[in-house]
Amino acid sequence: MGNEGINRRQLLQAAGATALLGAQAAGQNSVPETNTAGLLGLALYPQSNPYRQVMGLDGFWDFLPDPENAGRGKTWSGGFSGGRPIAVPASWNDQFEDLRDFLGPSWYQTRFDLPFGFDPKRRLRLRFG
């Protein structure tokens, strides 16, 4: 590498290789997942275990922009019609040319099946982000 130093890609590759070697030396099969719970670490990182099930909701959702901010008054929180399909996760600004500069309120909805064995009387929590 000489006197020119290393670029960002080389630094990240070296850091990743170091973490992988350290994990293997410690007897782990893979590098531990990064905690994305935030700076304070108050939330638990999503994980599957006997008490929790993690299920991805990526895919196509129904999307409805609300430039008049009328959705609450029209009870769209209980569902809406007339939406258009949108890929999630992604920005509507990148997917719809007519909304490229729109920064106002919008509504999303989707449907999913509960995991096998899930008691519908139990509380269900959704984590976004």
Descriptive overview:
- About 4% of the residues have low confidence.
- The two termini are 38 Å apart.
- The chain has a 3-stranded antiparallel sheet, with no helix packed on it.
- Among the domains are: 32 residues; 51 residues, no CATH class.
- The protein has 129 residues and is an alpha+beta fold.
- The radius of gyration is 21 Å and the shape is flat.
- The chain contains 2 helices and 3 strands.
Strand content: 5-15%
- Structural class from helices and strands? alpha+beta
Low-confidence stretches: 28-32
Q: Can you give the helix content as a percent range?
A: 10-25%
Major sheet summary line: 3 strands, antiparallel
Query: Strand order within the widest sheet?
Result: 2-1-3
The total of helices stands at 2
Strand segment count: 3
Tell me, briefly, the overall form: flat
What is the H/E string? HEEHE
Distance between the termini: 38 Å
Radius of gyration: 21 Å
* Mean pLDDT over all positions: 77
Question: Which key phrases capture this entry?
Answer:
2 helices; 129 residues; 17% helix; single chain; 3-stranded antiparallel β-sheet; alpha+beta
In short:
With 129 residues, this protein is of the alpha+beta class. Among the domains are: 1-32; 59-109, no CATH class.
Helix and strand arrangement:
Blueprint: H1 8-25, E1 59-65, E2 84-88, H2 92-95, E3 106-109
Antiparallel strand pairs: 1-2, 1-3
